[in-house]
Amino acid sequence: MATKQASKPQTNGTSSSNGKTNPIAPLHTSSLLSNDERKQLFHRMLQAREFDLAMIRAYKQGRAFGGVYSQIGNEAASVGSAFSLAADDAYFPMHRNVGGHFTRGQELRTMLKNFLAREGSMMRGTDGTGHYADVSKKVYGNVSHLGSMIPVAAGYVMAAKMRGEHTVAMTYIGDGGAQTGEFHEGMNLASVQRLPLVLIIENNQYAYSSPNSVEFACERLSDRALGYGCKGATIDGTDVELVYETCKNAVEEARKTGIPAIIECVTMRMRGHAEHDDFSYVPSTMIQEWQQRDPVDRYTQKMIDLKLYTAAEIESLRKSLTEEMNSAIDEVVALPFPASEEGRKLVFVQ
Ligand SMILES: Cc1ncc(C[n+]2csc(CCOP(=O)(O)OP(=O)(O)O)c2C)c(N)n1
Ligand SMILES: [Mg+2]
């Protein structure tokens, strides 16, 4: 099956691009990162992976219901981008950004209560994913209607700009959501008004069962930046340090100049759209090929090569995260569901 050439080398000044048809380039080593920060990136990626695996188990056990949308394959894009923001910047995540929630300092149990729709959760039990806003962490997400969060994020930084603040907003869209009208309206508004908005396109090859080949006809989604008069880059979305560095540069440039950026992170959705979907429409050769590019495995090897961890230490870290996720899920599943009137309170004025 043909996929779009987001995998071709890009020409906009970043050091690498990567995709399923290209040879796997060695991981980028960013001079902007200390080894301590590398360990933090790695830890967040592992947390995200273990969170997803635990939620998938819970779904199969009938303890999680609704949509369980994993971000397996997307950890580098999610964590690397969120890590580039300052604490005061605004984060507007989408449905494959658990790693970003952890990076913003969200507590595991707080997230699980929301994901498992329990009483006392931020969405009061009306949500099964990450549609919450946590103002204390400047996390505002996610608007389910694909594309709609882009103008909202643009509006957020427009208000901040009017108050004389130097806040940057980062938001996300998939390869499918990038084809909505609001993508255009949001990016055009941000570019014309010089609003410091960094948009991450998580190109994971599919929108539900639709491959890139039926979604768009341009070469790279970041090429659209030219039309808006903003910055653009297409990069290997499985390389966390490359994602971090590209985003960090875009964030700081946007903060300084008000020029927005579109950063397309090319990766692969390694599961179905959500766990109810067996993704049998994805060729198995494609999955096998992308398994070689697993962002967590690649960075694990780098940790070992850099002697930041031994393989045994990583194994024990993974094991303790698995246990932590499992016991947190047990704890949260034991909590009551909210009373049904709670749902109404979020919709109607009492
Ligand atoms: C405007 C709109 N149309 C359709 C949907 C239903 N929907 C939710 S996620 C999704 C697929 C999104 O694909 P993509 O943007 O590539 O993101 P991915 O799930 O692959 O990360 C669809 C069609 C929606 N939420 N909003
Ligand atoms: Mg997609």
What does this structure look like?
With 350 residues, the chain is of the alpha/beta class. The protein has one domain: Thiamin diphosphate (ThDP)-binding fold, Pyr/PP domains (Rossmann fold), CATH 3.40.50. 41% of the residues lie in helices and 10% in strands. It has twelve helices and nine strands. The strands form three sheets. A five-stranded parallel β-sheet has the order 1-4-5-9-8, with helices on both faces. A two-stranded antiparallel sheet has the order 2-3. The chain has a two-stranded antiparallel sheet with strand order 6-7. It is globular and about 50 Å long. The chain binds thiamine diphosphate (TPP) and magnesium ion (MG). Magnesium ion binds at residues 174-176, 204, 206-207, 269.
